[in-house]
Amino acid sequence: MKVFIEIFRMGLKSSFEYRGSFIISLVFDPLTLMLLISLLQVIYGNSQGDIILGYTLSQMIWYFVATRFFYYLIWNGTDKEISNAVLNGEMALRLIRPLSLLKWEFAKALSSKIFSFIFEFVPMLCICALLVYPDFFTWIALLKYLFICSLSFILFFLVSFIIGTVSFLWQSNQALVNIKTAIVSLMGGVAIPLEFYPEVLKNAMTYLPFQYLCYVPAQFLLNKSFTHNWSYFFEVVGIISIWIVIFYMISVGFWNIGVKKYISAGG
Question: Residue 13's pLDDT band (boundaries 50, 70, 90)?
Answer without folding.
Answer: low
